[in-house]
Amino acid sequence: MPVAPYGTWSSPFTADAIIADSVRLMDVELDGASLWWVEGRPAEGGRQVLVRRTGDGRVEDMTPAPFSVRTRVHEYGGRAFCVAASRLWFSNDADGRLYVQHLGAAPPPLTPRPLTPQSLTPQPLTDEGPWRYAEPQFDGHRERLLCVRETAREGREPSNELVAVAANGAVTVLASGHDFYSAPRLSADGRHLAYLSWDHPAMPWDGTVLWRCRLNEAGEAVASTVVAGGPEEAIFQPEWGPDGELYFISDKSGWWNLYRAGEPHTSVLPRAADFGRPYWQFGMYTYGFTGAGDIACSWCEDGEWSLGVLDLESKVLRPLSVPYTAFDNIRVQGQRLACLGGAPKLPGAVVEIDLASGECEARRVALELRVAAADLSAPRSIFFDSEGARVHAFFYPPANANYQGPQDERPPLIVIGHGGPTGSTTAALEPRIQFWTSRGFAVVDVNYRGSTGFGRAYRDALKGGWGVVDVADCVNAAKYLAAAGAVDGERFIIRGGSAGGYTALAALVFHDVFKAAASYYGIGELQALANDTHKFEARYLDSLIGPYPQMKSLYCERSPINHIRSLSCPVIFFQGLEDRVVPPNQAEMMVAALKEKGLPVAYLPFEGEQHGFRRASTIKRTLEAELYFYGKVFGFAPADQIEAVEIHNI
């Protein structure tokens, strides 16, 4: 096997190969014999297409161009369609309207035309629109949709309500008065509705309220009562069971466990594991009821996800033997289970499982892998000490079937801090990590304190400590691996997107450990974020740092832009110019400061991109530009032919 310096290896994971046939898979659904999902297609400019696989195996696009099935309620959106009775309803990204489509026919609009085009740029708006809709649920008893509606208002935060939209487009408000709503769930008999609400400054993983109300003959909500939740209890995914009882996930024990509503509520299975996830988007599901009345569910223990079936009578949780280790969007119908599955050496896929036989089939893969098994780096789950805390990460050593590194050299290490910061990373195959490991880089993907999947105490450990705790964990992950002899302690790199970008920038100014960094729409100035962000995250920093402006001095202290003097390594910035979550001026302020200081810096802005890149051309350019940048910084020549990047001060 040829010996070559780390970073110079020729890799089958080219940027072109990663984006050529790749799609983002989202929002699985079962309806009769059909299986549905949404595909985000970089090759079509990020358009999101609703796809159906029929019972006889035929796969077809259901939403024609230029429709894009997406909602921007809470900006992060999520579930934007529902299907029932040979019809589908969806939110169209371009105008935010709901459309109804009889299968095989063109989709006419259901809701009114907005007063202004759907846009991420501020518009002069009124209380009459435009509107956005999310998480539609079909009410077959009244031939209408139940969904969350968001109304933009000039000079004020948008308002959110739970509404019913009739077949003629008429809207009935079912619940209002709270800052946020999600998860409308109609009982089988159509007489009761359950839903979640929460209010500033709480995020939905801090404290939510589960409501139950009765629907009268006119379909109006009456007699609303609180079932569970509060400021210190986060409720996730209410569902009506086949027994007519209301089930939900609560973290009141310190873990997101399943409960049955009652007096008192009954814990279905007490366990030191998380069965829930943070409600970043609409339509998140981790469990469902089988035809036998059991619960098929996923859960996380020590950073590892499992899938199984819980027998409600015996309280026995039986793991399913499937080739996947990460599971999302669990949907169950009879003895069929569909979900998004991932594994260390399998591409992400829409997966269908026969719960009776255990047969598991990938119905659609996110990426056609054309690489040898030896080209794939298998992640190793590690725990390390960080300031007395036990912290988790996945470590990926370099892997390439055709190369090995010099015996007297250790690989450079890329440290990744995930976004959120209330999120997590899994061991599922991520081609953009393999892009680096197959070129000779080691990667550590850190579930720093504040990540989900490790219980409430671990999640709350970041409160008041953002920019300190997460940074310390990323730094200590790198030091741990260097001390173990696995990586080169003189070539630490840190990269991240959004909140992970902030962690990267904070690590550069508060620690002298990293030699290069990449920020993808990262946060450089916290006051600007507090003053100029969308409603969903408008008070997020209250818990992560402290109330603003009362603690303005702490915001200044934690902002990387105010500590440029401490920054002593090169940085490359990538930014979408239509990003409202982290506006472009965040990156531009940091770039200007680095230029003035004389440090190597590159800035690549992208027209038409928002928070999280969706276009094939953008994904290709960013991956290659980042590799080019590291080559210039560390003095190696990548094997790839890459368009040059303008780097100032180098």
Explain this structure to me?
The protein has about 650 residues and is an alpha+beta fold. It has ten helices and 35 strands. The two termini are about 35 Å apart. The strands form eight sheets. Strands 28-29-31-30-32-33-34-35 form an eight-stranded mixed sheet, with helices on both faces. It has a four-stranded antiparallel sheet with strand order 1-2-3-4, with no helix packed on it. A four-stranded antiparallel sheet has the order 8-9-10-11, with no helix packed on it. Among the domains are: about 285-370; about 375-635, Alpha/Beta hydrolase fold, catalytic domain (Rossmann fold, 3-Layer(aba) Sandwich).
Write the SSE topology.
Blueprint: H1 15-20, E1 24-31, E2 34-41, E3 47-53, E4 59-61, E5 81-84, E6 87-91, E7 98-102, E8 131-139, E9 144-153, E10 156-166, E11 171-175, E12 180-186, E13 192-198, E14 209-215, E15 221-229, E16 235-240, E17 246-250, E18 257-260, E19 266-267, E20 287-289, E21 295-301, E22 304-311, E23 316-319, E24 326-333, E25 336-343, E26 346-354, E27 360-365, E28 380-386, E29 389-396, E30 413-417, H2 431-437, E31 442-447, H3 456-460, H4 469-483, E32 492-497, H5 499-510, E33 516-520, H6 526-531, H7 540-544, H8 552-558, E34 571-576, H9 584-597, E35 601-606, H10 616-634
Parallel strand pairs: 30-31, 30-32, 32-33, 33-34, 34-35
Antiparallel strand pairs: 1-2, 2-3, 3-4, 5-6, 6-7, 8-9, 9-10, 10-11, 12-13, 13-14, 14-15, 16-17, 17-18, 18-19, 20-21, 21-22, 22-23, 24-25, 25-26, 26-27, 28-29, 29-31
Helix pairs in contact: 4-5
